C-alpha cells in the first residue's frame, strides 16, 4: 500500500505549478517525484492549449496524459498525440459574441485553433500576455472563423476581468460557458466544458476515481476541478472565488505551495 493518501495529483500550470518565470522549482519537482515514487500519478490540467503546454511538459520530462484547453484536449505527452479534442461551435460562438457586444460594447478578440499545432490568433487591440508564447496577429475578422477553434478570448477596454466575466455569463450563459482563467484572460468555451470534464476523462483512462484525487489551482476556472476532486487546494495567490470553495489554502506558487502540501502528506 502507498503511504500517500491519493492516487492522482492534478495541478494547474500558470499561478500554480509554474512560477512567474514559467519555471518549476527544484523543491516542487522533488515533491512530485516523491509522490510518483509512492505510487500516485501526476497530471497537468491547464487552460493552455497543447501548443502552449508542450514545451513545459517536455522540460519536466512529463510522459503521461495532460488535460489542456480548459478540458477540451486530452493529450498524450510521450506519444505527442491528441486522445480527445472538443471544438467550439463557431456559429454559436459568433452569436454569443454579438450578444455580449450588444450588452457591453466592442471587445478585443483572440482565439485558439484546434489541433496539435493550432495557432493562437490575436486581433486588433487584444493585449497579449508578456512572455515567449507564440501568436499570430490578424486584421481581417473573417480569419478568426476560418478554421476550427477550441475557444475565444475576450477583453474589454474598461471592464475588469470579473465584471466582463459576470456580464458575459449573464448574457450568454445558456449558449456557451464563460470562464476567467487568469489576469486579462476571459474565455468563451463550449457549453458544459470545464477542467472537470477533461480531468474525469483522463482519470478514467488511468483507472483513478475522483475520490482518489487531490487538485491544486489558483483561478475561477479551477472551481469545477475542485468540485470533482476529493480535495481542492488553492494557492496562496489564488482568486477569492477559488479560495472560497477550496478545502485548504497553501503557500503561493512562488513559495512552493504544491510542495508544502505534498511533503506534509508524504510525512503524515
**Largest sheet report:** 6 strands, mixed
Decide which structural class fits the backbone.
alpha/beta
What form results from the Cα inertia axes? Answer: globular
The number of helical runs is 10
The SSE string, one letter per element, is EHHEHEEEHEEEHEHEEHEHEHEH
| Share of residues in helices | 25-40%
- Adjacency order of strands in the biggest sheet: 8-7-6-9-11-10
Beta-strand fraction estimate: 15-25%
Mean pLDDT: 95
Rounded Rg: 18 Å
Q: Which spans have pLDDT < 50 for at least 5 consecutive residues?
A: none
Question: What is shown here, in short?
Answer:
Helices cover 35% and strands 24% of the residues.
Describe this structure in words.
Helix content is 35%, strand content 24%. The protein has ten helices and 14 strands. The chain has helices spanning 13-17, 26-37, 50-60, 90-104, 141-144, 161-172, 195-206, 223-228, 240-245, 257-267; strands spanning 8-11, 41-44, 65-68, 73-76, 81-85, 108-113, 120-122, 136-137, 149-155, 176-182, 185-190, 213-217, 231-234, 248-249. It has a six-stranded mixed sheet with strand order 8-7-6-9-11-10. A five-stranded parallel sheet has the order 2-1-12-13-14. Strand 3 and strand 4 (73-76) form a beta hairpin. The protein starts with 7 loop residues before the first strand and ends with a helix.
